[in-house]
Every structure is written in structure tokens, then in C-alpha cells.
């Protein structure tokens, strides 16, 4: 089986701060990581490889420093890595991003394409489904589990608000995975030693199947109008009372705010 | 000259730090309190290759180097001194001498199992009457056809009960002194080989420390490590490498104590402000950090030299001497800056201080390191 996993380098938002004056992220000193949902997707691929045998290609689109997450993917067990990077890709929204990725994916042969559900920096959850549309492939989003019958059929557990769905899908298809699906493995020491001996293939716009006018900022119908930090909420009020009294306090508060 | 880590080393440091933080740190207090060998941690380390970092890939190792190995021991020791010494004794004192002095057959037999962590390694040189004076060995190995018969005992052996393979030393010719010592590889379960009492220690309480007892223990000649009578040299070379590991352990303990102290002094308030606002705290921290960074430079220089096949014996001695004494000083200051809380087991710095003391003693006391360093100056 051939699997392609799309991964993205993101700032570790657990360690991020927002400049209260400008409303922008303070990127300085914030470590970059593999987006957690994408790492869950990579782990899902690695488990499939262990169970059924598979060749795993990881692909990322991003600036030169995104090379680091491809090395990390090698150290976890990926077989091939492709880095899509070109000045023409810069400023892409989700549509232009998924278009460029799809242009690269058309060059690859795969049975399963895995992306994370969403990235912790943009939180759109759009790129995976858009790639599936560009490639005209069936897609299943919000995956918690996936099994392969060894021939052509995947059985998938899809998270939905009230519970889950079990679906059967035939290869080739696209799935988006939740980080809660698994616990990603650590990179291995031997894997790290090898990661920098292996070649990361660097592809620009000329290596992929795309119309240049649909790339980057030019190809992006959406743009960010304004980003702002939510103000800090004041500390709540704490009452240590029995249930009846608590109900009374809550009803009064709701009346004060004209909710009731 | 370049003081930067390579990208590969940075990625390695990131991985090992995550591993230490998530898998090792949560167990550190319990392992100390219960004097329990953290076998589950060893299994996790084995899975990702930490038990075979500087062992070449052809023998099942990770194919890394001594610098990476020292970084691993440092990061593990920063959260748990016990875990640091388990890896250090296993790697430096058992796998390394087999790699350096073993026959191809011995390497094929032992290294894949040690590097994968399926087996844990240990080392037996010290005896009740042969500590710093290692030449006073009383354990004997007497030739008997195709075998040697071993009699005697070894004390203070790290990983003892939990290990599977041991590099030990015995007198094959008592009349020759140090020139009559030979090294052997012995497996757990060999008839006549048993364990004595488990030591109750001040620190590194989770590491298993036992006596090894040999009573008419029959070893085939093929278990001799290196040549007949060359054991003393093998022991000294092995300890040179081991000192890098222990220096890294001491370095990690000092860094761990600094990490805890920086966190604490920002939170702890006295006289209406955080104690980090007092100049005494600031100056203490500055000294702690400067000495710890100096230790790091010495450790990495020794590891670099070993990796590049440059004589490193004196560098390893300096690294161990300085890092160990720094660990003792820094952990002591860390407890002082924590005040009364630092003396309780609610905070990890008292454990770090207890763990640090052994780094001035084992694998060559600080006094032995001074002998090594000065002997090289005066020769």
C-alpha cells in the first residue's frame, strides 16, 4: 500500500503569546512543531505500515525551515519526504494551498492520502477536504480509527458530535485525522541519525501540475482583514453553597444579565 | 571552532528532552522513595534506541556518537539521576568495552542484545579491598582446560540484579600485579554466579546496586575479553569513557536543579516580593549557571575528542571532576534557595543533592581525577 501524509509546520501554540498592542503572534522563541492532528495522521500511517506493510511519503508546503518537520517524519519512520517550497506559494489561503498541494499529489501514486483535521495556527479544517475536491477523490473527515483489509477496503471510525460513524471506503481516498486518534511515537535515535542522511525532495511550482495564476496571494480569494486577541476575562465569582442556594444565585445572575 | 549543535543533534536533544519530561520525570520521586529499579522506563528507552546510542548500526545500535550519548545522559539525569546512571553504566561500562575489545564473535553475540535493550549490561571491577586501588584485585581466574574457574566477589555493582551480561575483572596471575589482571564477559545464570546483598544508598536509589559473587564459576575461554593479562588496561580505558557518562549525569543533575530553582524563586514570595527579585538569589543563580555551562563545555569537549579518536583521558577526568563538584555545589545551593521546602521531599532538589554526591565518588573519585590530571602535567 502507498500512503501519502500531508503535514504542516506550526508554532507550538501552547507556548505562544499575543502582542496586546498589535494583536499579532509573538513568534520569537516559540518552537515549531508538526501540527498535532497531522502527527496523529502520520502515526496512523506508521501503524498501518507495521500491520500491513506500506510505503509512506510525507509532504509539506512551507518555507525552507519546514525541512525540520520532514526530518522529524523520517526519524519517526517515513520513507520519502517532499518539500513544496517556492516564493510563488507565499501568502496562500486555504484554497491556493490545497490547489498547490493537489498539483504535487497528482504526481504521486497512492492508495490513501492522510491529512490532519486542522492546523492549530489557522484552525480552518479546510485544506484536507479541498485537496480531495481538487483530486476528485472520496473523503472522510474527523477520523478516530482506520483499518485496512489488505486489499482495497478501509473501515473507518469517524467522530461526529453525538457519537461516531463506521464507514467502509475503497482506495484511493482522502481522510482527515484527529490528534486524539492515537499517541504518536517518539522519533528513534537511529531514525534521527539517518534523517539527515536521507534526501528531502524539494519541489517548486515548475515541478508540479498547476496554473501559476491560482497560486499564492494571487490565487487566494480570501484574506485576513484583522486579527485581534480576546481580552482577558475577569476572575469568576466563587460560592461554596448547597444546590438550592446555587440555583437561586444562578437564576438571579441570569435575570441581571437579561438572559431570563 | 564551532560551539553549535548540528541540526541532527538539535533534533535529538528535542526528542530526548520530550522523552525525559513525559516518560522519566513523572516516575523520578517514586523510584527514589521506593528504591525501585524503573524497568518500564528501560523498556521505553530500549524501544527508541536509547540503550544503544553510540553502538554502530551493524551491531544493532543507533549509529550515533558519544556526544549524543552524553546529551542523552544529561537530559535523563536532569529529571532522574537513577535513569541517567542506568544508561551510563550499561553503555559505557559494558557495551563499550565489548565493542572496543571484543572478538567479532563476542560483538555479534552481545552487542545486538545490549544495543536493543533486550539485555542490560553491567561492570564489575570494585572489590571490598580494591576500590581506588584497583590493582588489589582478589577475585581469581584459574585456567582449567578450555575454561577458567572464577572465585571472588565484586561490590557496588550498578544494574547488578537487573543486568544480563557483565564485564568483570579477575587475577589470572597474582604475581604480576596489574599485569596479571584479565577481563571476562559473564552472563547471568552462569552456574556459580550469584548476587549478594542489595546496597541501601543515599541517592540514585532506584538504580540496583549489588554484590556479585563467584563460587567456582566455570567460564569458557571464549568469554575472555581482550587478551590474557590485558584486563587492567581495558578497565582503565573503559573508565575513561565511563567518566564522560558520569560527568554528563552530574551535569544533568546540576541543570535539573537550576531548572527547578528558577521556577521556584519566581513563585516564592517573601517580604512582599518574589525571592527572584533579591540580589542574593540572582547572584547565586548566576554562579550556578556559569559553572554548569562550564561543565557542559568540558563534557562535550571530552565526548568530541572521543568521537574523533583524539586522546581524551585527561579531558574526561577534568569533565568528571568539575561536573561532579559543580553538581554538588549547585544542588546544595538549590536546596538553600528553596529554604525549608527544599529540605522536604515535596520538591525534587533534595533528591538531586543526594544523587549528586555519588558523582564525586564512583567511576573514579574526585581525588583519582586529580591524580590523572596532574600526572599528565608532571610527566
TrEMBL record, chain A:
Name of the featured protein: Electron transfer flavoprotein subunit beta/FixA family protein
Any one GO MF annotation of this record: electron transfer activity
CDD domains: ETF_beta (cd01714)
Residue ranges of every copy of the Electron transfer flavoprotein alpha/beta-subunit N-terminal domain listed in the record: 22-212
The keyword DNA-binding is annotated on this UniProt entry: no
Domain of life: Bacteria
Keyword list, A-Z: Electron transport, Transport
PANTHER family recorded: ELECTRON TRANSFER FLAVOPROTEIN BETA-SUBUNIT, PROTEIN FIXA
Keyword Signal applies: no
Automatic annotation (TrEMBL), chain B:
Keyword check for Oxidoreductase: yes
Alphabetical list of CDD domains matching this protein: SCAD_SBCAD
Alphabetized InterPro entries for the sequence: Acyl-CoA_DH_CS, Acyl-CoA_Oxase/DH_mid-dom, Acyl-CoA_Oxase/DH_mid-dom_sf, AcylCo_DH-like_C, AcylCo_DH/oxidase_C, AcylCoA_DH/ox_N, AcylCoA_DH/ox_N_sf, AcylCoA_DH/oxidase_NM_dom_sf
Record domain Acyl-CoA dehydrogenase/oxidase C-terminal: where: 230-378
MF (Gene Ontology): acyl-CoA dehydrogenase activity; flavin adenine dinucleotide binding
Keywords carried by this UniProt record: FAD, Flavoprotein, Oxidoreductase
Enzyme class: oxidoreductase
SUPFAM superfamilies: Acyl-CoA dehydrogenase C-terminal domain-like (SSF47203), Acyl-CoA dehydrogenase NM domain-like (SSF56645)
Pfam families: Acyl-CoA_dh_1 (PF00441), Acyl-CoA_dh_M (PF02770), Acyl-CoA_dh_N (PF02771)
Domain Acyl-CoA oxidase/dehydrogenase middle positions: 122-217
Key word Oxidoreductase present: yes
EC number: 1.3.8.10
Every Acyl-CoA dehydrogenase/oxidase N-terminal domain range: 6-118
PROSITE patterns per the UniProt record, alphabetical: ACYL_COA_DH_1 (PS00072), ACYL_COA_DH_2 (PS00073)
Domain of life: Bacteria
Cofactor(s) required, per the database record: FAD
Family the UniProt entry places it in: Belongs to the acyl-CoA dehydrogenase family.
Protein name stated in the entry: Cyclohex-1-ene-1-carbonyl-CoA dehydrogenase
Species this chain originates from: Ancylomarina euxinus
Amino acid at each position: 500500500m502507498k500512503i501519502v501524509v500531508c503535514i504542516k509546520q506550526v508554532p507550538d501554540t501552547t507556548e505562544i503569546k499575543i502582542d496586546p498592542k498589535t494583536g499579532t503572534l509573538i513568534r520569537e522563541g516559540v518552537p515549531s512543531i508538526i501540527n498535532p492532528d497531522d502527527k496523529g495522521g502520520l502515526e496512523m500511517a506508521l501503524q498501518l505500515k507495521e500491520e500491513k506493510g506500506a510505503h509512506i511519503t510525507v509532504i509539506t508546503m512551507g518555507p525552507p525551515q519546514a525541512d525540520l518537520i520532514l526530518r522529524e517524519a523520517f526519524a519517526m519512520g517515513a520513507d520519502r519526504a517532499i518539500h513544496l517550497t517556492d516564493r510563488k506559494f507565499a501568502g496562500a489561503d486555504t484554497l491556493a494551498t490545497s490547489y498547490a498541494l493537489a498539483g504535487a499529489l497528482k504526481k504521486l501514486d497512492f492508495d490513501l492520502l492522510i491529512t490532519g483535521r486542522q492546523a492549530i495556527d489557522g484552525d480552518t479544517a479546510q485544506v484536507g477536504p479541498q485537496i480531495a475536491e481538487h483530486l476528485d477523490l472520496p473523503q472522510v473527515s474527523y477520523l478516530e480509527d482506520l483499518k485496512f483489509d489488505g486489499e482495497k477496503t478501509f473501515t473507518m471510525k469517524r467522530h461526529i458530535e453525538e457519537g461516531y460513524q463506521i464507514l467502509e471506503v475503497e482506495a484511493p481516498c482522502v481522510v482527515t485525522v484527529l490528534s486524539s486518534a492515537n499517541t504518536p511515537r517518539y522519533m528513534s535515535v537511529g531514525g534521527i541519525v539517518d534523517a539527515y542522511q536521507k534526501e528531502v525532495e524539494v519541489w517548486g511550482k515548475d515541478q508540479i501540475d498547476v496554473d501559476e495564476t491560482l497560486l499564492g496571494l494571487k490565487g487566494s480569494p480570501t484574506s485576513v482583514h484583522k486579527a485581534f486577541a480576546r481580552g482577558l476575562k475577569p476572575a469568576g465569582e466563587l460560592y461554596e453553597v448547597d444546590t438550592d442556594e446555587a440555583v437561586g444565585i444562578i437564576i438571579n445572575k441570569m435575570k441581571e444579565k437579561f438572559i431570563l | 571552532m564551532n560551539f553549535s549543535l548540528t541540526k541532527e543533534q538539535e533534533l535529538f536533544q528535542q526528542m530526548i528532552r520530550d522523552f525525559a519530561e513525559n516518560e522519566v520525570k513523572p516516575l523520578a520521586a517514586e523510584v527514589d522513595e521506593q528504591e525501585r529499579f524503573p524497568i518500564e522506563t528501560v523498556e521505553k528507552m530500549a524501544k527508541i534506541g536509547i540503550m544503544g546510542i553510540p553502538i554502530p548500526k551493524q551491531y544493532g545500535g543507533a549509529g550515533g556518537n558519544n556526544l549524543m550519548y552524553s546529551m542523552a545522559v544529561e537530559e535523563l539525569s536532569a529529571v532522574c539521576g537513577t535513569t541517567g546512571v542506568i544508561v551510563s553504566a550499561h553503555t559505557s561500562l559494558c557495551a563499550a568495552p565489548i565493542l572496543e575489545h571484543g572478538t567479532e564473535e563476542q560483538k555479534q553475540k552481545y552487542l545486538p542484545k545490549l544495543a536493543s535493550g533486550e539485555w542490560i549490561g553491567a561492570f564489575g571491577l570494585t572489590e571490598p579491598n580494591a576500590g581506588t586501588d584497583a590493582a588489589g584485585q582478589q577475585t581469581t581466574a584459574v585456567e582449567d582446560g578450555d575454561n577458567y574457574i572464577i572465585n571472588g566477589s565484586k561490590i557496588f555493582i550498578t544494574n547488578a540484579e537487573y543486568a544480563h551480561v557483565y564485564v568483570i575483572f579477575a587475577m589470572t596471575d597474582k604475581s604480576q600485579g596489574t599485569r596479571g589482571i584479565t577481563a571476562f564477559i559473564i552472563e547471568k545464570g552462569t552456574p556459580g554466579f550469584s548476587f549478594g546483598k542489595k546496597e541501601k544508598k543515599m541517592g540514585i536509589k532506584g538504580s540496583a546496586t549489588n554484590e556479585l559473587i563467584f563460587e567456582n564459576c566455570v567460564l569458557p575461554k571464549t568469554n575472555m575479553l581482550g587478551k590474557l593479562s590485558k584486563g587492567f588496561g581495558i578497565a582503565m580505558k573503559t573508565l575513561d569513557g565511563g567518566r564522560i557518562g558520569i560527568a554528563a549525569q552530574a551535569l544533568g543533575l546540576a541543570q535539573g536543579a537550576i531548572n527547578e530553582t528558577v521556577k521556584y524563586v519566581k513563585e516564592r514570595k517573601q517580604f512582599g516580593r518574589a525571592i527572584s527579585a533579591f540580589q542574593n538569589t540572582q547572584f547565586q543563580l548566576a554562579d550556578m549557571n556559569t559553572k554548569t555551562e562550564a561543565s557542559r563545555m568540558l563534557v562535550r569537549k571530552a565526548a568530541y575528542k572521543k568521537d574523533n579518536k583524539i586522546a581524551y583521558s585527561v579531558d574526561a577526568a577534568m569533565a568528571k571532576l568539575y561536573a561532579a563538584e559543580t553538581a554538588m555545589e549547585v544542588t546544595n545551593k538549590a536546596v538553600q534557595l528553596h529554604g525549608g521546602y527544599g529540605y522536604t521531599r515535596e520538591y525534587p532538589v533534595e533528591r538531586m543533592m543526594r544523587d549528586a554526591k555519588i558523582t564525586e565518588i564512583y567511576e573514579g573519585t574526585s581525588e583519582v581525577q586529580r591524580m590523572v590530571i596532574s600526572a599528565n602535567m608532571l610527566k
